[in-house]
Amino acid sequence: MVERRPLIAGNWKMNFDHLRSIAFVQKLAWTLKDAKYSAGQVEVAVFPPFTDIRSVQTTIESDRMEFAFGAQDLSPHDSGAHTGDISGEFLAKLGCTYVIVGHSERRMDHHEDDELVAAKTRAALLHGLVPVVCVGETTEDREAHGASAVPVAQLRVVLESIAKDSDIVVAYEPVWAIGSGQAATPKEAQEVCSALREEIAAVMGNDAAERTRVLYGGSVKSQNIASFMREADVDGALVGGASLDVDEFSRIVQFPKHIIA
Ligand code: PGA
């Protein structure tokens, strides 16, 4: 059986200018060092706005911090006449490991559909970035089709358009749980994360399903992270609001202490 290293990912959304981003990662590094954090046990990644990425990169690299970082979006195109867009190639040059695609806020604010999310996933893979593919149902979807149907269908469109050996991360984020303070229960998260893993197995094979990390996101906090991480198919969390508070985010990263206790 493949060991999947837990990933705690902080999605800053449109928060922190580049100066604040530097102060944040420095404080995060000190706090986790004090807590004897080891990246071997839990991987930490931050997702700053585009304008912060260069500052975050130089801070992390010059102090040899054990954090990964990524962007919150990318263009499906490689270059050219696409005013305001950012290419995966540029993100790769900045040392990004990851890029979020298909976050529900982009699906809503920018009318991104499953085909565009699939195209962005392919663009990320083309440039050597690991896409964090976000899927999730609204309250209406859940009432009409149950919890898993929409997230599984969203993921299928992406999976069917990429190579079977692609390295991706999947994030299950029920739309009703994002920023609402009302997280899914661990059982609800497990049910959908397991359905997503079955879909990965069906489209990409068992090896891909075994190695691909599936995260839960939506009102994750230090008080509930351990209960999600106890579930067999939850391999980490995509954290929004709680990732903006260094102490709270550090406590989330240290969830193994609560699981062992
Ligand atoms: P939240 O956001 O933790 O503030 O609910 C999660 C996300 O949107 O990724």
From TrEMBL:
GO terms of biological process kind: gluconeogenesis; glyceraldehyde-3-phosphate biosynthetic process; glycerol catabolic process; glycolytic process
Keywords: Cytoplasm, Gluconeogenesis, Glycolysis, Isomerase
Name of the protein this chain belongs to: triose-phosphate isomerase
GO cellular component: cytosol
NCBIfam families in the record: tim
Pathway: Carbohydrate degradation; glycolysis; D-glyceraldehyde 3-phosphate from glycerone phosphate: step 1/1
This enzyme's EC code(s): 5.3.1.1
InterPro entries attached to this UniProt entry: Aldolase_TIM (IPR013785), TIM_sf (IPR035990), TrioseP_Isoase_bac/euk (IPR022896), Triosephosphate_isomerase (IPR000652), Triosephosphate_isomerase_AS (IPR020861)
UniProt-listed PANTHER family: TRIOSEPHOSPHATE ISOMERASE
An example Gene Ontology molecular-function term: triose-phosphate isomerase activity
EC class: isomerase
